[in-house]
Fold these 3 entries.
Entry 1:
Amino acid sequence: MIFTDEQINEIESLSAVNYTIKQVAMYLNIPLLELRNEYDNPQSKFKYHYDRGQLIAQAQIDMSNLESAKKGNITAQQRYDKRAYQNKINQAKERIFHRS
């Protein structure tokens, strides 16, 4: 499936605000089954940019949270510690199951 640069930006923006694949399909006026099949293909541009949009949004949140934690915000420090622990678990799972 081929996407325009504008569609790629929209895919990343929509996934960043946690829109589902169904919602993205409706927004882009693409058949849902077609888009779900694209997401299931690890090599597809759609999967890459959908996942990238979520990653960028989470990274921005994590960086902001880190700054708050450094300034002494206890809640931010707790969120940081929880996220760091979860990342260690996820990395161990990836090593064990060789998943990306």
Entry 2:
Amino acid sequence: MRLSVRLGSFFLLAALVTACFADDDPNSALKRALTLSSLTGPHAQPFHLKLTISEPANPNSPYRATVEEFWQSPKLWQRNIESPGFQQTISMTGTTQTEQSPGGYYPLWLRNFVTAAIDPLEDSAFWTQVSARVVLTEKSSKSESTSCARAQFKIGTPAVNNDAFAVICFNSDGTLSSVVRPGYDMEFHDVQPFGKKKIAHTYIDDPEPGTKLNGTVDLLEQLQPGAFPAVPGLPNQSSAPIESARINQETFESLANHATLVWPPVHSGNTSGKLSMYVSADSQGHVREAYPLNSDNAGLQSAARDQLLKWQLKPAVSNGKPVQVEAALTFEFSTTTDGPPPSVTSQGNAVPATSPSAKPIVVSPQIANSLRTKAFAPVYPQNLKLNRVSGKVDLDAIIGKDGQIVSLTPKYSTNPAFTDSAIAAVQHWAYKPYLLNGSPVEIETVITINFNAP
């Protein structure tokens, strides 16, 4: 099957960006970030980079790699990647590129760190595709203020689709603070000067609940003239470059031998709704990665991931070459509830599921706030903002053992538009697990969002 390799082709439709940059030009913030935060962007200077990627909480994690790049110009650079199960050596000289990639599959999580460290906005066309006009939405009174762009659109098929979100934030100096969109999620920290640029030296990604990856720049120095090294051991006959195509769900399902999921009973939350995952398959059609995007019940994400990783696709071909494929998929689920899971006492005896101890633990908003690790500011509804209407939303929230939002129920709101905006933002927040007697438990709390008119 011939596929069209086209950026953003997995999106069903694009909606107007409802929050964004600090001025009226929708491209100015992107251009400034590209100039400042990209090693290979405008005003680039030759560099030598060493990057280490790891999962600090799990030293034996397969999520680990080292990256080294020598870059003289777009026509003269070398890159070497070493990680469990995948190695890659690329040499570009003029218009000739040689590549060796043992393992055959370039992991999405690894590619994202390489992208973030070298050219974090190589997909800048994505933001212009989903944006038409942009406005400032988030700015603190602190010295380290940020402005953010936020887009909301649909992923899936015309019959079954779900909301997806993209958020890009900039520091007050114009450098990147974070990027979140289907298939690419990264935070940028420890920004340091490098020539005319300001380059992050720490990168953080949470590809799935319970997994936090760090990328650390061990070395970033100017590459001196004549210091460009030969690539050791690169054979004359190189392998075909690894390419990846973003495709829509209908194309992805046409490659699959089956395209349905079985839903197990849930302990809490919605028993029907929609669930979206971002999936990547190798050039042989084996699904290799599946990461959650958006779900009406986060408790079903693990079951969906386990099943998707067993899918086998027909190999995809683009321009006569086998390619990896990636897609944002949306499914409808309908299941039943089996009640809260039993807990275990210190003596090892099971507590019945009807026991109050098995219910979510109620904690104060202050305690919940102290556990929060990721938050996105809600979009201020434009008509209410223009009319200087302030408001407040209280949400009853259940937060799972893994720190992900399980359910949100409106408790109080001054305006339905504020409610929709608050839920759209809060459902992507994340927390550290709440521990009771050393074990993580579900918690229930109230999240308050205030909309203060300018």
Entry 3:
Amino acid sequence: MPSGIVVTIQDEKSQIKNKAKAMAVLRSRLLDRERARLAEAESAMRRSMVGSGERSEKVRTYNFPRTADRSPNRARLAQPSRRHDGDLDKLIDALSTTYQAERLRSLNTEDSGA
């Protein structure tokens, strides 16, 4: 395969020996070129994974034990960290109760207005 690399060696009187040395030098240059290409590809991949370090890419931490649900008309739910672990039963029950109460209120206002 043509590579565009030219190697000339004229160390020996024998053309066969010069050709063998030139092939060895060519082989090592091609190997160096391939290693450089692979290193550049790996470096580009790592750069894309690391990012730029801008503010939008930084990791944020939240102090969950201090948070509380301060929404009006909803029961306060302790231990928000449990919600993040998938324990959503109390939250779903509170939301469902609030939704049902709002629906009943809207039905009562429709019935009394008609």
